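I am writing to request your help with a piece of structural work I have in hand. The matter concerns a single protein, recorded as an amino acid sequence and a row of backbone structure tokens. Could you please explain, in whatever detail you think fit, how the structure tokens follow from the sequence? Thank you for your consideration; the sequence and its tokens are set out here:
>
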Amino acid sequence: MLRARLADPALIPRDRPSPDEDLDRAARSGGRFIEAAVLVPLVLRADPTVLLTLRSARLNSHAGQVAFPGGRMEAGETAEQAALREAEEEVGLDPGLPDIVGRLPDILTGTGYLVTPVVALLRPPFDLRSDPGEVAEAFEYPLAQLLDPAAPERRQQEFRGRMREFWVWPHERHYIWGATASMLVTLSAVLRAERFAPAAVGET
């Protein structure tokens, strides 16, 4: 069952190493990180999908990148509350619609965000109204492609004097990479471990 599988994110094999060591090193050096949460909605269509967004080119950070709906956590919020609030603000998703089933492991981004991915099931119909200041487009990625272990491609690129490796997921219009691609790799592994066929993704 997907809920049981996600009950303890520490037991889920992660695409990236645990952020604990990086956080400890940052704390010792006086560095800071920003807590954030994203909603990872599995859309239960006849052919299920994952809901993603293309961030607005107007944003100061991560402009034009593919991401899950989400953002910074506010004081006193849980990751689930923050993910639902941000999804409502960014794409107009009614926070009462997603059925939250668990979390993926936290991921520390190169820009200093400690992100908690909150996984939810989303049953149509639902209406989306993207905030153009934050989201250029909301779109859905086919679950059948996500479940293909050969779909993501591992690439290398120099960044700030260091060679970094990262995943890229195929898409006809968008470049899906970075933390979002890493979360998709982990999600894909979880769903394959549960032997989730696209037609059975709603069986939690």
About this structure: The longest helix spans residues 178-193. Helices lie at 2-5, 20-28, 79-91, 143-146, 178-193. Residues 2-146 form a domain with the Nucleoside Triphosphate Pyrophosphohydrolase fold (CATH 3.90.79.10).
